[in-house]
Amino acid sequence: MIAVTQAVRCVEGCSGGGESSAVAIVGLALALFGLGLSIAALREAIQSRRISAESLDMAREEHQAFLQEMRATADFDLTVELDDVVGNVIETTADQFALVWRLGIKNSGEKAANDVGVNFLIPQGIPGFAWRTARTDAHTVGAAREIELTPEILTASDGAESQAQYLATKIDRIDLRTHHVLRAEATMRPAGAETIISVKFKVWADELPDEVEARWVTHEVVVRKVPRG
């Protein structure tokens, strides 16, 4: 038997894969568009998270800086020297002369100090005790105050003790690493071959560490009377 194959011509409803291909292309396009939106959203989320992390780091740094500023304190390095005299020993034939102390304050802390209080103490009975403001390189002292007496004792290296008198003033502000200079003077009248004068320089401010009431330093002047000629 011979098998006969007949060719059949489709007359209607036999368009084949044309329409399904178009649908597939549209679906693929929509899928790619959706993928693009997803990628964009993911990038935005990552960027937003990065910005949030940076904002958090910035806020943390600002908080740390604030705490550091709150904990910062001022501090003072103090010096007492004789003006125009090398060392602390004076040999003189004079029965009376003016002695000038140069008082240095340097803020070695972490913040400026405001309304800084100053006391300079010398033994009672020494006349002519006053702030000296005539020198152009000395900071002008505020309104002059009377000499005050105090029961505080000054002890010299030879063991001699003296009740103190003092001058006081205030300095509006001492910035970091600023070297502030004051000068004080008194009239020396040597009694005997050698006179030892003990002085004390005291400075304080609210910006000092809580456990520190004030910074102070002591100094001695040795006056030796030598014969004339």
Q: Which structural class do the helices and strands define?
A: alpha+beta
Q: Report the C-alpha radius of gyration, rounded.
A: 44 Å
Mean pLDDT: 81
Distance between the termini: 165 Å
CATH H level, superfamily name of the largest domain: ntegrin, alpha v. Chain A, domain 4
Known CATH architecture of the largest domain:
Sandwich
Q: What does this protein structure show overall?
A:
A hairpin with a 5-residue loop joins strand 6 (148-155) and strand 7. The chain has one helix and ten strands; from the N terminus they run αββββββββββ. It has two domains: 17-71; 76-225, Sandwich (Immunoglobulin-like), CATH 2.60.40.1530. Residues 1-16 have low confidence and may be disordered. The chain has 229 residues and is of the alpha+beta class.
Provide tags for this entry.
about 230 residues; Immunoglobulin-like; single chain; four-stranded antiparallel sheet; alpha+beta
Task: Describe, in short, the structure shown.
The protein has one helix and ten strands. With 229 residues, it is an alpha+beta fold.
